[in-house]
């Protein structure tokens, strides 16, 4: 089988890095999204990816293109069902505006405007199961499915965020003949982000807290170890994904500590 991979969410924050690393490793990379358009960035690897239209909830729009893929990656998720947080996280630092945006996001989506396909259940669980079934229908030889899960619940984020990821892991693990790999990264940052990018500032704060915890307490208190977790880079996650894909004996959960090695 050729080194070819399909990525759903390839134009997203982590998905872009998965595409970039895959191209660097010699993979034929196909990214599926509803727009079918590449991200607006001026980097050489972008032109080497096949950007294709596909609605993950409508397998007929993409399933034929899954045949022959050595792996499929599900890199679609929601931190909050109100997606206003995305604009804030990817912008440059503006303290008052960012607090207002975060507070608005935590209120959740307007019930009158809430789309049943824009929920934790739909995006993080149901879409993964739909995609896995479509892949299994098309690819009979060593199908490998990578699901981007999470290390643990993020403070102040609704329980539905982590619950639906764990439910997806369970559903996928029950798929006969599917080699499932569950990546559990922590808070993510991109090493090339500008210093005043909100996401970079936040992850630096998280990393500082983790370093202070290690200096003062080490790893001796389990409760604190679970509460204070280190960030990891998109590069670390993407590199580990391809290492696991190429290790035919690898399957199951890949914990944060392993991702960061």
Name some characteristics of this structure.
ComplexI_NDUFA9_subunit; alpha/beta; 9 strands; 41% helix; NAD(P)-bd_dom_sf; NAD(P)-binding protein; 261 residues; Rossmann fold; two-stranded parallel sheet; 9 helices; seven-stranded parallel β-sheet
Tell me what you see in this structure:
- This protein is 41% helix and 14% strand.
- The chain has 261 residues and is of the alpha/beta class.
- It folds into 3 domains: 1-78 and 119-186 and 232-261, 3-Layer(aba) Sandwich (Rossmann fold); 80-116, no CATH class; 193-230.
- The two termini are 29 Å apart.
- GO terms for molecular function: protein-containing complex binding.
What is the CATH-assigned architecture of the largest domain? 3-Layer(aba) Sandwich
Tell me the number of strands.
9
Query: What percentage of residues falls in helices of 4 or more residues?
Result: 40-55%
How would you classify the helix and strand content by structural class?
A: alpha/beta
Q: Overall mean pLDDT score?
A: 84
What fraction of residues sit in β-strands? 5-15%
CATH class of the largest domain: Alpha Beta
N-to-C terminal Cα separation, in Å? 29 Å
Computed over alpha carbons, the radius of gyration is 18 Å
Organism: Hyphopichia burtonii NRRL Y-1933
Domain NAD-dependent epimerase/dehydratase: 5-85
GO cellular component, one term: mitochondrion
Protein name: NAD(P)-binding protein
């Amino acid at each position: 089988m050729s080194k070819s991979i399909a990525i759903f969410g390839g134009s997203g924050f982590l998905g872009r890095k998965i595409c970039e690393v895959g191209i660097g490793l010699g993979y034929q990379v196909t990214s599926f999204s509803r727009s079918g358009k590449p991200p607006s960035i001026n980097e050489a690897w972008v032109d080497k990816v096949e950007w294709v239209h596909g609605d993950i909830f409508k397998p007929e729009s993409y399933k034929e293109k899954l045949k022959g893929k050595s792996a499929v990656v599900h890199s679609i998720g929601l931190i909050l069902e109100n997606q206003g947080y995305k604009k804030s996280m990817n912008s440059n630092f503006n303290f008052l505006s960012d607090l207002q945006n975060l507070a608005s996001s935590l209120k959740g989506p307007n019930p009158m405007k809430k789309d049943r396909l824009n929920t934790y259940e739909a995006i993080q669980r149901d879409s993964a199961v739909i995609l896995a079934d479509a892949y299994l229908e098309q690819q009979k030889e060593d199908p490998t499915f990578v699901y981007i899960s999470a290390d643990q619940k993020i403070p102040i984020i609704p329980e539905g965020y982590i619950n639906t990821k764990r439910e997806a892991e369970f559903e996928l693990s029950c798929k006969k003949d599917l080699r499932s790999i569950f990546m559990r990264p922590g808070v993510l940052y991109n090493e090339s982000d500008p210093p005043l990018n909100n996401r970079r500032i936040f992850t630096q704060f998280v990393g500082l807290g983790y370093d202070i915890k290690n200096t003062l307490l080490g790893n001796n208190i389990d409760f604190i170890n679970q509460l204070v977790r280190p960030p990891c880079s998109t590069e670390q996650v993407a590199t580990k994904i391809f290492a696991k894909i190429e290790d035919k004996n690898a399957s199951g959960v890949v914990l944060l500590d392993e991702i960061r090695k």
